[in-house]
Amino acid sequence: MQSVSPWLTKTARIVSAVGHPLFVTSLFTLAVAFDQLTTLNALLVSGLLLGGVIGPVTWQNYQRTKRGLYTNFDVSDRQQRYRFYPILIALLGLVTTLLFVTQQPRPFCIGFLSVLLLVVCSYGINFFCKVSLHTSISFFMVWALRLISLPLGVGMGILALLIAASRLVLSRHSLTELVVGALLGLLAGAGFYGYIR
């Protein structure tokens, strides 16, 4: 088997970092919230996401990687994900509930609920196969961006394919894990798109 060229590995690392679920969801939510909501609502939605999910998960992954409890920040080991998923689900569940309770706009509530269901399904599937969250979230974003415009959706589709390829090049996932992630993301995204549209 041929080794992967250093250039391809470096490119894959960059694409994988850009496509990290924590980064992609933050960027998308901030952009859409400040574009479509009042400043107060945008601050509330963004604050809940960043302070209630992104910040704690980033800190946890960093600390557990530093202490050797996780092999890497992405939690690429299937056994280690058994500790990762319950915390992510609890945080996402809390933030989603708060969005509904504070009566935020329906697309944001349903969007967070869709991602929560995607993560819960990923946790269940993890008992058999390690789903690529990079891939599932990026393919979910294809549908979310399609709600805004067709070119954005197509662009995200191309990026989603590149993100999936980067995970394969970096040997973080098998082809099966990527396909399962893509299908899960597409199904969750299509459900979100259909409901909101």
From TrEMBL:
Has the keyword Membrane been applied to this entry? yes
Task: Please report the name of this protein according to its UniProt entry.
Answer: Phosphatase PAP2 family protein
Parts of the chain that traverse the membrane: 12-34, 41-62, 82-101, 108-128, 140-163, 175-196
**Pfam assignment, any one:** PAP2
Is Transmembrane included in the keywords of this UniProt record?
Answer: yes
**Keyword list, A-Z:** Membrane, Transmembrane, Transmembrane helix
Per UniProt, residues of the Phosphatidic acid phosphatase type 2/haloperoxidase domain are 89-194
Give the species.
Spirosoma agri
State the source organism's domain of life.
Bacteria
